[in-house]
Please model this.
Amino acid sequence: MTETVLAALADGVLTLTLNRPDKLNAFNEEMHLALRAGFQRAHDDAGVRAVLLTGAGRGFCAGQDLGDRDPRNGGPAPDLGHTLETFYNPTLRLIRSLEKPVVCAVNGVAAGAGANIAIACDIVLAGKSARFIQAFARIGLVPDAGGSWSLARILGEPRAKALALTAEPLGAEKAAEWGLIWKAVEDEALMDEALALARSLAAGPTLGLGLTKRLIQAAAVNSLDQQLDQERDCQREAGRSTDYAEGVTAFLEKRKPEFRGQ
Model:
């Protein structure tokens, strides 16, 4: 049986590749569980210092596979809330709580939950032909996989509502212009650039990078006073790390630092 998510660890980077290319990497139960296992491994394995998420074939992810939910087959209406609580939400929480950098390389279409899983990652690169589609309105659903939260915070209410209500595709270059993703690159350069970025992050002071991720995510809900207190606490932790000692020593010795993520 073909693996629905390919996992490969090299140079501290765990590359997770959604691997149902014949279905534009749409999610079925097996792929849900495999992707969650990949991000759980990133939490548990100290050898993983960064994650790179991408898709096989001509698209990143078309969202949920609707093939098993054909209403013409009869039966009771599906409990989509159960699907979110059982499959999507645990994975989204693992991505957001992972205190290691997560890079996403979006190739081709990212639709529905596929788009929202992508933008939940820390740094998103997309090929210039990529498109982000909040496809939920086309089938009478609401944005999920964190989409209603991410879109509003990243883009603001007017653009978030327009994308969600119209399901209009957003091209990679416009997504970068709006700040939804980090950058759009030439399609043929996407994986090389994304992998180079992930390797650079993995070789960096990943304890401090993880604390930085924690702080930036907290800023959306913290008051200034709360954020100042949290910065103090995180800086105290970072200042006691071997990475900080190595960084300062390397600076003084005018050499490249060798960080260990500790």
User: Anything to note?
Assistant: The first strand starts at residue 5 and ends at 10. The chain has a mean pLDDT of 95.
